[in-house]
Amino acid sequence: MTSGLRKASSLAGRYLSSGKPHHAQWLVTRKCNYRCVGCNVWKEQDDQELSAAEIKKGLDILKGLGIVELTISGGDPLLRSDIAEILDYASERFLTTVYDNGSMATKKIEALRKVDFVAISIDSLDEAKNDAIKAVPGAWKNAIHTVEVLQKEGIRVAVTPTISQKNLYEIMDMTNYFMERKIPMWFCLYSYDTSVDSKQLFRIGKANDEFIITDKEAMVNLCNQLIASMKKNPNILMTKKLLQTLRSLYEPNAERTWKCQALNQFLVVDHLGRISGCHNHNFAGSIFDQPKQWKSNEFKTLRKTYQDCTQCNYLCYIAYSLYGGPKSILSLANDQWKNIKLLLK
Predict the structure, then answer these.
(1) Which class for 80: exposed (0-12), middle (13-18), buried (19 or more C-beta within 10 A)?
(2) Residue 344 pLDDT class (50, 70, 90 cuts)
(3) Is the pLDDT confidence value at 52 over 70?
(4) How sure is the predictor about 338, in pLDDT bands with cuts at 50, 70 and 90?
(5) Domain count across the chain
(6) Is residue 161 pLDDT above 90, yes or no?
């Protein structure tokens, strides 16, 4: 059996194990070299971070908990000098996605060879608009060049626009543009933190009126267009259920049709190894206290708190929450197996 097939078999087996978390996001650094308008990570940078050895120890713990999909982000994780060692270790154990703002990936080609996806943030096909959002001149050219280089090098690259009022009317044009070039896409949704607690795990951004979606009808139409496009193009890496759930937030009788499964189906780890169900809430312990703490009464109480929480619409948290029950896990495992087969081609 090849190493790829062994990994696929291991992932599928973990996906079919109910009652365990399957998704984790590790924000391995607080450092960032961009100044994105809708984000404040760059305003609150921190030179402290775990060593590669400590992160590898934590990755073993995550695998033991049942994690299948691991997102490595920051800040920009590729700013770490030891990121190759971290990614090599992670990619052997998880379906691993690495986020980059488009500035670093071409400098870390060899470090990215084994990961499953490199996600490049591009928010507009309009160079000036994209650079204004990123607040860095040349950001668009860097990102487009990065996508082209990674694709040429045979590294699986995806483009990840953040849908907001700022780019709402061009998302389908962007989708078609990258679909024609056989570049997979998935989407983020502009959201913002509402917590102001000093113990919040990780602050990302505050409300910005330029980005908050006000044209709800256009957002509903976009979801419908993406659902229709998925039937023709497998490179839209979303699920119909997720897009329908997103659509429900903007329909005339808008409602949340899910309960958050933070610290149940997914968790977040920060640059210091602290964990929480999601970045919006106070940190609840350390990755190195697991799995003992995971089974504690304290965490049982926190899970109820998270399920009752309605303070954010971060699309990744919605996606993870939709696949919390046994039937959903089986459905997601089926979808993921298709993706794994795609990855093994």
Answers:
(1) buried
(2) very low
(3) yes
(4) very low
(5) 1
(6) yes
Amino acid at 323: Y
Task: For residue 141, give the CATH number of its domain.
Answer: 3.20.20.70
Q: What is the extent of the structural domain holding 284?
A: 3-343
User: Residue 80 has which token pair?
Assistant: 């770490």
Least confident among 27-36, 48-57, 181-190, 327-336: 327-336
